Amino acid sequence: MAKITFLGAAGTVTGSKYLIEAEGKRLLVDCGLFEGTKELKQRNWDKLPIDPATIDWVLLTHAHIDHTGYLPRLYRNGYRGPIYSNAATHELCAVLLPDSAHLQEEDARFAAKKGYSSHKPPLPLYTVAEAQAVLTQFHEIPSNDPFTISPQFSVLPHDAGHILGATWLELTITEGGKKTLVVFSGDVGRFDQPILKDPELPTHADVLLCEATYGDRDHAAGSVTDELADVISRTAKRGGAVVIPAFAVDRTQLLMYYLRELVEQKRIPDLPVYVDSPMAISVTDLYARHYGDHDLRPQTSADPLNLAHVHLTRTVEDSKKINDVVSPCIIVSASGMITGGRVLHHLAKRLPDSRSAVLLVGYQAEGSGGRALQDGAKFLSIHGEQVPVRAQVIDIGQLSAHAGKSELVRWLSGFQAPPRQTFMIHGEPGGLNGLRDAITSQYHWPVTIPAYLQTVDLNG
Ligand SMILES: [Zn+2]
Questions:
Q1: How far apart are the CA of 265 and the centre of ligand 1, in A?
Q2: 39 alpha carbon – ligand 1 mean position (Å)
Q3: Superfamily of domain 3-217+401-457
Q4: pLDDT score at 113
Q5: In angstroms, what is the span from residue 363 Cα to ligand 1's centroid?
């Protein structure tokens, strides 16, 4: 009996991990970190219900940490098998996983110094050495061609339009001669956006796992560039700084693309832009190399991601010097959900300044600093201190890398027949219920919202 166990992103957005079992073999699809609330993060420390050494293969949809960030922990606990992903995802993981480990180590050191950790002494979830070790287990598979993992499992990846290298997967499970086609949505991206290709539409599946990050809402209509131009010009006039917490992958590149366009069209003043994330800089280099995976073409522009007055900061010293900048400027820094990283010290400096503005440009998980700002917090806890929020906080949902509700419904419109089972995953309760209701009213498919750690028979 082929079965699936929901080891993460069930009833919540983060921690994507799906264990598929057939003929005694175990395949793990995605291996993400839980992020957000204390309770969710505790799950990263809990023992998995199965021994990682008994997993045969890992298969990845894309490189985001909530889909890959548990890999070094899986390694620590005994996993030594292959990890399958396309080349872009592999290269992104080579940047993201050591960085994630570095943040874990830094947090543990900082907590030790300030004495606010629940672990005594504070420990990192995993180390840079473990992240490096697990990277040696990667095997690159084709981006758009079928790949056979074993007699039980074969996969056909498709473009998801979400970040560089992001795919949704058609997994064919063969058990006792019987085939079951499972579609994993991964994270579905946007239609008609610059840089990335549109998501391809699936046409058939026996079982569908569909993400519902924005299952209950659409991104605001209206032009991203108008909104960016407006906020940046107004903030510059006040003499403030614009701080943009941005995911190093994709959101930073998209922002650089828009900022360059706005400067060229003279719709914003040509302010100094600080891209303060060594990771974002490395990822931008990757975009420049993987032309086959996105829509930017070297011949359409000399350097589509380049800005004249952009300062790329790699070192901590240079990062700290940005605090001394008193003239209007734009600071793009990770993490995108204000859960760690250099953006914290920029916010500690700029949030109390009413002339400045903070732009939220991506999904903000429950329990994250970004969600607190979205919800109108008057103070933000940064490094154990309460920082007053006087800067203007603006949410630019149009910059999201995730499909909004109608885009998810559009992605599902390609199905020629209803999947036998549809599972709503990768959403908070509002998103999960919202998309389920949309699917049942529009397509009349049976939809299930699985519980964390639930196991389901795929042929049931
Ligand atoms: Zn993602």
A1: 31
A2: 21
A3: Ribonuclease Z/Hydroxyacylglutathione hydrolase-like (3.60.15.10)
A4: 77
A5: 10
Rounded-to-integer distance, Cα 387 and Cα 393, Å: 14
Question: In what side-by-side order are the strands of the sheet with 147-148?
Answer: 147-148, 153-159, 167-175, 178-184, 207-211, 421-425, 447-448
**What is the C-alpha separation between 156 and 93, in angstroms, rounded?**
21
Report DSSP state, residue 452.
Answer: T
Q: How many Å lie between the centroid of ligand 1 and the Cα of residue 112? A: 31
Q: What is the reported pLDDT for 116?
A: 60
Write phi, then psi, for 181 (nearest 5 degrees).
Answer: -100, 120
Mean pLDDT in order along the chain per 10 residues (460 residues)? 96 97 98 93 95 98 96 98 97 93 86 68 92 98 96 98 95 95 97 90 98 94 90 96 90 87 92 87 79 57 58 85 93 90 94 97 89 96 94 90 95 97 97 97 96 94
DSSP element (H, E) containing 347? helix 343-350
Scored b (16 or more CB within 10 A) or e, 329-351 reads bbbbbbbbbbbbbbbbbbbebbb
Is this model's pTM higher than 0.85 or not?
Answer: yes
Strands 207-211 and 178-184: parallel
Sign of CA dihedral 387, 391, 395, 396: negative
In angstroms, what is the span from residue 23 Cα to ligand 1's centroid? 30
Could you tell me the distance, in angstroms and rounded to a whole number, from the CA of residue 460 to the centre of ligand 1? Answer: 29
Compute, in angstroms, the gap from residue 211 CA to the centroid of ligand 1: 10
Residue 324 Cα to ligand 1 middle (Å): 34
The C-alpha atoms of residue 113 and residue 421 are separated, in whole angstroms, by 50
Please tell me the number of Cα atoms within 13 Å of 366 on its side-chain side. Answer: 17
> 224-399: same fold as 3-217+401-457?
no
- Read off the DSSP letter of residue 134: H
Fold of 224-399: Rossmann fold (3.40.50)
- Ligand 1 center to 65 CA (angstroms): 8
Report which DSSP code applies to 201.
Answer: P
Phi, psi for residue 239 in degrees, rounded to 5: 85, 20
Domain map of the chain by residue range? 3-217+401-457, 224-399
Considering only CA atoms, give the Rg of the chain.
22
Cα of 175 from ligand 1 centre, angstroms = 30
